[in-house]
Amino acid sequence: MDRKTNVYVWDMDETLILLKSLLSGAYAAAFNGLKNVESGLKIGKIWEHHILQTCDTYFFYEQIESFNQPYLDALNEYDDNSDLSDYDFSQDGLGVPLDALNKRKLAYRHRVIADKYRKGLCNLLNQDLVKLWESLYELSDTYTDKWLSSARACLEQCAGQKRDAEFEHVNVLVTSGALVPSLVKCLFFRLDHIFTSNNVYSSLEVGKLQCFMWIKERFEGENFRFCVIGDGWEECEAAQSMNWPFVQIQIDPHPPNTNRFPGLTSRDLTHYFSDENIEETVRENTK
What is the per-residue pLDDT across 89-108, written as a single tens digit (0 to 9) for each? Predict the structure, then answer.
């Protein structure tokens, strides 16, 4: 008998990582004066600087920002698999209109991005920048009471349940941000070993619902079950449209809120995959 597969569909910002709420002060505000707003803002700005700098320096972001795609494989049909070792990306004239020729040039860049993502940040950054990154991560994790490491641990628990005789487990990321910065965030926030590049989606142009539909097509069949985890209204509405259970993450630290990090565990999420819970979700969404 084929094993069932639990597909965890994750949002990124204010779910697995905290960045926007640091920059806006919303995270600190939730603690009613117990968190220093300026410290959070400073941490957020440092992250923002290094993420954008890395996007531009190593991931062609200045060249392709206007050509955001929902996932890296979106233009695979245009890639002729040419050897790119001597290819000059600064001189190939990528631009508008995004016709077949320019789609091929964009597909080349996507291939290189996927390869760099697979190899990781330590193959891109020098030793000093790696130390800075590690220090910034630890500082951020301390400021957020281990939100980052707890979220990563939950992901690893979900992905690591491979000894489960009855179920397989897959993590997929659907972010409202642009694709390249989202991939770079995965690298900086140590999520790249959980989300392979082909399991990262950008809903910026197409919306969360369309991304969820693509995911459903990829994992099609009665043996696949889905659960969405995020903080926003869009993924909530998209999950309802798909009749998938939704777990809403909140930064509010006050009990009894356990849908946050630290707090939420893979065992908690398993409950949402139960047949009874899925049936209840369908009933609620069809009222």
Answer: 999 999 999 999 999 999 99
Q: How many domains does the chain have?
A: 1
Active-site annotation holder among 13, 79, 141, 192: 13
Q: pLDDT digit string (tens) for 138-153?
A: 999 999 999 999 999 9
Give the domain range for residue 184.
4-285
pLDDT at position 3 is 80
Strand arrangement, sheet containing 4-10: 200-202, 167-175, 4-10, 224-230, 246-248
Is the whole-model pTM more than 0.85?
A: yes
Please report, for the domain that includes residue 165, its CATH number: 3.40.50.12350
Known binding site for Mg(2+): residues? 11, 13, 231
- The question of whether 13 is a catalytic residue gets the answer yes
3-state secondary structure 126-178: CHHHHHHHHHHHHHHHHHCCCHHHHHHHHHHHHHCHHHCCCEEEEEEEEECCC
Are 257 and 263 in contact by the 8 Å Cβ rule? The answer is yes
Catalytically annotated residue among 2, 11, 79, 128 = 11
Q: What is the pLDDT of residue 161?
A: 61
Q: Going by C-beta distance under 8 Å and a sequence separation of 6 or more, which residues neighbour residue 133? A: 50, 121, 125, 188
Annotated binding residues: 11, 13, 231
- Mean pLDDT value across the chain: 93
